[in-house]
Design a protein that fits this description.
20 helices, two-stranded antiparallel ribbon, 2 domains, Growth Hormone, Chain: A, globular, 2 strands, 2% strand, 474 residues, mainly alpha
Length: 474
Amino acid sequence: MIEKKDNLLIVKGPVDTSNKKSPFVIRNVRLFIAFRVFFNARFYYPVFTILYLDFGLTLEQFALLNAAWAASIVLLEVPSGALADTIGRRNLLVLTGILMVIEIALLCFVPMGNPDLLFGIFLVNRVLSGAAEAAASGADEAIAYDALKQEGEARDWPRVLEKQMRIQSIAYVGAMSLGAAVYDPALMQRLANTLGLNIHLTQDITLRFPLYLTFIMAIMTLLTTLKLEEEKPAVKPECDPSEHSGQSIVQAFKLTLQAGGWILKTPFALVIILAGLMFDNCIRMVVTLCSQYYRLINLPEASFGLIGSGLAMLGMIIPWLAYKMVTRHSPAYNLAVMAIVSLIGLIGITFFLPIIGLLPVALLSVVMYMGRFFQSHYLNRITASHQRATVLSFKGLSFNLAYGLIGVLYSILLVFLRPQLAAAYPDLSHVGIENLVFIKSIGWFPWYFLLTLAALLAVARWQLQNTDSYKTPG
């Protein structure tokens, strides 16, 4: 029964929810989940570094290509949000699907043997990949959330995210395991022999197998985006859409710069951003190189996916531990724990110990999960709601910029080390020199981390001298 009192409608008695619409019967919600699964199921991730090296690229080229990827995200992340609101989220997601198809197709069909051509094609691939990441960022969630508000209940969004993350995690584990398995020529040859196939498989052949599987995912991504539905963006008839888009992009950049100004004027926020940046750029660079590290500690390629899946399972445990830490300990204490664990992990990988060498990688993965949790918690705690999204966007931009810069520094280090080691070991083969350069380069990461940690502590002491926010748990 419904009564009206003081201009409010009051519902008495049980509410009939039998006709409540499940969020998963809404077309765009289902397609949002499918898009996230197809777009992120990249079978080459567990063999990322060695894929580039086996194509014939060098380690410094690999580092520069990742820097180009990060730079394209930095340059396109902000305007992509404005474009999504101007030309439409669906159109931007369709563009994402097209970019993914092109970027993977380039690697599937690029001929081997010409180093300059290979580097050029891989550079185009990295730029297109970064553009696709920037275009998809936020637009997929926005179109699904809008559909949920219009056709269902907005409060069901956590259910949608929970299911999306669960399905995506399952797909990720499958892609990691299968991608590493099909990359291994010995395993694929045994499978071919078992099936009675009269073929001889080499690394030059199997290195494209994860790419072919990812190309199928790219096509599925594009088909998914084409099925999305969205009303045309509301632009006044008398306005030129291109002019409106330009104004939106300019405004987006202004908001991002304003968020940067607020961070510089807020000591605790500045230190949190710098701390996260320090941990992220160093450890992410190491994690990116892990497939080459696994190969040098005598692990078979087929195991790389299982290792990646096992490390991903840490994501089910570490957030709970991080929650306990933020409620019981101060930010300064948590920073100290992360610094100690990071240093142990970075020193541990320099020994290149078979099997046991996986432990320092696990420690670095723990720090990555902790860092994401701590940054989100502390920044959201002190940031006003009206600029929260922009501050978090600025954080993402700064992290990718730092990742690009360390990629450039790493490539310079490799250029410095290679001639010295080639002169010192003239009898080593090209592959032997590459492996030795990699081993020596890993030894620089603990020193880089200590240097950036010392700089962070100096800035933190200067910025936080008149506040005790870093001492307070919560």
